[in-house]
Amino acid sequence: MDLLQQVTALAKRRGILFPNSEIYGGIGGFCDYGPVGVEMKNNLKRYWWKNIVDKRENVVGIDGTIITHPKVWEASGHVKGFADEVIECKTCHQRFRPEDIENNCPKCGNKEFTDARTYNMLFKTEVGVIEGDKQTAYLRGEACQTIYLDFKNVVDSTRQQIPFGIAQIGKAFRNEVTPNKFTFRTREFEQWDLQYFVHPDDMDKCFEYWKEERMNFYKKLYRKTDNLRFYEHPHDKLVFYAKKAFDIEYKAPWGWAENEGIHWRSDYDLTQHSKFSGKDLSYTDPQTGDRFIPNIVETSGGVDRTFLFLLLDAYEEEKLENGNTRTVLKIHPDIAAYKVAIFPLVSNKEDIVSKGREIFDMLSDDYKVIWDDRGNIGKRYRYQDEIGTPFCITIDYETLENNTVTVRDRDTMEQKRVKVEDLDEVLNN
Length: 429
Description:
Elements: H1 3-13, E1 17-19, E2 31-33, H2 35-54, E3 59-61, H3 71-75, H4 78-81, E4 83-88, E5 95-96, E6 117-120, E7 123-127, E8 135-139, H5 144-149, H6 151-157, E9 164-173, E10 188-198, H7 203-221, E11 228-232, E12 245-252, E13 255-264, H8 268-277, E14 283-284, E15 291-292, E16 295-302, H9 303-314, E17 315-319, E18 325-329, E19 340-344, H10 350-364, E20 369-371, H11 377-387, E21 391-395, H12 397-402, E22 404-409, E23 415-419, H13 423-427
Parallel strand pairs: 3-9, 19-20, 19-21
Antiparallel strand pairs: 1-2, 4-5, 4-6, 7-8, 9-10, 10-16, 11-12, 12-13, 13-16, 14-15, 17-18, 21-22, 22-23
């Protein structure tokens, strides 16, 4: 199996990700996060939020709705222009995006395809309860539009002044013709978005700042930083309102793939929404009285894509001295579902179990802790390695005598005796 297949199998086996509606044969482009995966994903979102919002006094957050007024998507250009192309193999009738095909059909090898057809990727829905009075609406195709809608409300309700940012993590929906590569391309996904509002004269400086900030974020998150690079979009390929656009790409098993985009969006978005809504979305500088439509530096990434790249980045199969192979997920400790696992050496000795529960309760105030008393110690290590738990703590007979425990490190497999009162120091190193 290649790396993507190995990670996909591990994800299902260990409760990280499940195919949606699997008992009915599944539905393409949708995935469910399992008990382990949802903890990882929540940790990942918290990690981003802490970096973008909590540590910055000039960035605030919102949580916008998935459905908005239909004119929002007319103003943004999505109703007319949010399109993709599809071609169809003339032999097996499998459909593809033209850019995903080099020469032959990946399924049957045929070289003949239909001409490309264009289709809109927005998901339509209806709002209202009475037939004939229902209003056509859309599930949002990108999360950033709700930020633009709330721009003036944020300015009026906070003490923020330009430059400042509005951040959001939320669901978006695209009717992709070829959802593929696990969570890389799906029809329902989450985005993390920062829209940073800037005076036009300061755009060069702010764009470069956020470009480097976002790359540094991923360099801290991933282990294999050589798998990261910038890709600059050629000027002749930029959308008309953009001056610059860079992607942070990750080297996946299928090649370099977009992780996050950093875009110079000019004043187009606020101008369009002002035009279509009739509401003035300009900004007045309180010091100078200067009135202008802010330009925007956008940093927008896929939570689910990042999650997949983290799994690919962390997955290892290691040959041990005894000839066995260890599968381990060396995921960033802040993203791991659990910080520490508690192992009572035996599950039928009340004094050992009781001491283990005491340590569990003590640590769970500050860490995400999992209790594991199933099977022998070796099987427990194997399970915790595969879900990426950084530390395992074993409570044994010696614990009852001198209040020490065995702490095992996930990455090195090193084991050492530690006093219970010193556990915080060990877990935080």
